[in-house]
Design a protein that fits this description.
heterodimer; A: alpha/beta; Aconitase, domain 3; 2 domains; five-stranded parallel beta sheet; B: alpha/beta; Aconitase, domain 4; 6 helices
């Protein structure tokens, strides 16, 4: 019986000839990642060893990455002290894949891991962040776990009692229309599947639309797979994956892409034609409350956000800059832009996008998670509405339970910044080619 | 028998259970004060210790969706609540197993605030209405961690095994 990509990865990671959905395995971890919540992982890690007589030692520090992104620079003494504690632990334990608060090497964990070549096809990647699913874009099996589970992995090097998930094959076909991109595709898919439709399952992406999508777009698909509940999203690695890792991430060692078997067993197969897809909007307060833009165009917004682990990459900034260049953000709207990493910020500077944003009246912030999860900056006032390229619109997500958050693509966000209402980018000058 | 102290709908996210702005607080001894911080009445009842330990929180499908933040579990565990829901999101479910928060999956459950529930093997009985509802058993792989007393204890056992090798 054939295997899916994730089954093949887990077979390799457990030294077995084959595994199938439902099997319980203990895969070795190839890369593990934490952000500020490493503070809690450290507590639990020390707890594991307490009174055991054993030395608290990380199984392989070269496989551990720690990236500060959720609250950078620190917004409070408490955060700064947590970051200080993590910094000291990282130094003491020889964790080299550490990305501190820096303009050059820092950024959001789900951009830092790919752009530094830390994630490889076929790898098992675990992160104490639900959007760890992102790294499936490089053909890895990547999933989010809690801090205590990470402490266990730091100690043992394996993830205990993992049930091999069933896989849903998602075939995306057709050429995307102008001003419609990967964000619209994944919002559409989450709307179809619902917020729990892929709970405990893997989304394996196929089809010519995905094949012709750059890695940046595949990261969007896999990033938001978790919004359908998926354990992981994955795009089987191909020439584009190798191009990205060689050319953009500077990887020189051997890469071994993993493909699904032709007779792999899928729980179900979904086919989607995106050739006529409209820009999609996730409306408050669930990510699966997705509507084509025509249904919500004209809705007044107070704050526009472009950025996050979903849509803070160079091509996201490019499309937004193209729409905003030489124009002005509407007077009664605030626009915040967060490049996903220092490297992307520098590229956007060289390309002139940062200047386009600033001259249009947007505020360009430092790389990081920014206002996405309401912990740091860019809070909303009572009853205000945000339109954001981030990934969640749960009640209170941006820090104010009386506010509304709509999710969209960078093109929709930029077009809407010009008008102050949700606006179809195909209707603004610069939005059409 | 335990009392239902609050009923919530489908897709209750970790942002509702434990708002992101309190994520710098990590210690299980400190997180309980922020449980459902934006549901101000319920939060006040929890903080005033007006909710008895072992009380039941009833929810719909996909409870705990969203973030991997473990505070969403430790905050409920701190009040020794039991969550009975139609379904749970994966990471929240696993974190609950790891930290010992009691979850009961009852896909057809109907209950309202004030009802008394009896949690048995394979079923939940709403003794207020007299109706019985099936429950979904925990997969053995996760039950093993619960039986060990949580993931820290389970990991210690494995470490002890390893160091003897």
């Amino acid at each position: 019986m054939g295997m899916t990509v994730v089954e093949k990865i887990l077979a390799r990671a457990t030294g077995r000839a084959a595994v199938k959905a439902g099997d319980v395995v203990e895969p070795g971890a190839d890369l593990v990642m934490s952000h500020e919540n490493a503070a809690l992982v450290i507590n639990q890690f020390l707890e594991v060893f307490k009174d055991t007589g054993l030395e608290a030692r990380i199984w392989d520090p070269s496989k551990v990455a720690v990236i500060f992104d959720h609250r950078v620079p620190a917004e409070s003494p408490k955060t700064a002290t947590n970051q200080k504690k993590v910094r000291e632990f990282v130094a003491k334990n020889g964790i080299a894949k550490f990305h501190d608060i820096r303009g050059d090497l820092g950024g959001i964990c789900h951009q830092i891991l790919p752009e530094n070549g830390y994630v490889r096809p076929g790898a098992v990647v675990l992160g104490t962040d639900s959007h760890t699913t992102s790294h499936g874009a490089l053909g890895a099996f990547a999933f989010g776990i809690g801090a205590t589970e990470m402490a266990s992995v730091w100690a043992l090097g394996t993830s205990l009692n993992v049930e091999v998930p069933a896989t849903i094959k998602v075939v995306v076909k057709g050429k995307l229309p102008e001003m419609v991109g990967p964000k619209d595709v994944i919002l559409h898919i989450v709307g179809l599947l619902t917020a729990e439709g892929a709970n405990f399952k893997v989304l394996e992406f196929h089809g010519d639309t995905v094949r012709s999508m750059p890695t940046s777009g595949r990261l969007v698909l896999c990033n938001m797979s978790v919004e359908a509940g998926a354990t992981s999203g994955i795009v089987p690695a191909d020439d584009e994956t190798l191009r990205y890792l060689r050319e953009e991430a500077g990887v020189t060692d051997t890469l071994t892409p993993v493909q699904p078997d032709a007779d792999a067993v899928y729980e179900r197969v979904i086919e989607i034609d995106v050739s006529k897809l409209e820009p999609q909007i996730a409306c408050p307060h669930t990510v699966d409350n997705v509507k084509p833009i025509g249904k919500v165009a004209g809705t007044k917004v107070h704050q526009i956000v472009i950025g996050s682990c979903t849509n803070g990459r160079l091509d996201d900034l490019e499309v937004a800059a193209r729409i905003l260049k030489g124009k002005k953000v509407a007077k009664d709207v605030r626009m915040l832009v967060f490049p996903a990493s220092g490297r992307i910020y520098a590229q956007a500077l060289l390309k002139g996008y940062v200047g386009d944003f600033v001259q249009a009246g947007a505020v360009v912030m430092n790389p990081g998670c920014g206002p996405c999860l309401g912990v740091h900056e860019g809070a909303l006032g009572d009853g205000e509405t945000a339109l954001s390229t981030t990934n969640r619109n749960f009640k209170g997500r941006m820090g104010n339970p009386t506010s509304d958050v709509y999710l969209c693509s960078p093109a929709v966000a930029a077009a809407s910044a010009l008008t102050g209402t949700i606006t179809d980018p195909r209707t603004v000058v610069g939005g059409a080619q | 028998m335990s009392t239902v102290v609050i009923t919530l709908g489908d897709d209750i996210s970790t942002d509702v259970i434990y708002p992101g702005r309190y994520m710098a607080t990590v210690l299980p001894t400190e997180t309980p004060q922020f449980a459902f911080a934006d549901l101000t009445d319920f939060n006040a009842r929890l903080k005033a210790k007006q909710v008895r330990q072992g009380s039941i929180l009833v929810a719909g499908k996909n409870f705990g969706c969203g973030s991997s933040r473990e505070q969403a579990v430790s905050t409920l565990k701190g009040h020794e609540l039991i969550v009975v829901a139609k379904g749970f999101a994966r990471i929240f479910y696993q974190n609950s197993v790891n930290l010992g928060l009691r979850l009961v999956e009852a896909p057809d459950l109907e209950a309202k605030e004030g009802d008394e529930l009896e949690i048995g093997t394979g079923e939940v009985v709403n003794t207020t209405t007299g109706r019985r509802y099936r429950t979904v058993p925990m997969p053995p792989a996760r039950q093993a961690i619960v039986d060990a007393g949580g993931l820290i204890a389970y990991t210690r056992r494995r470490l002890a095994g390893k160091s003897k090798e």
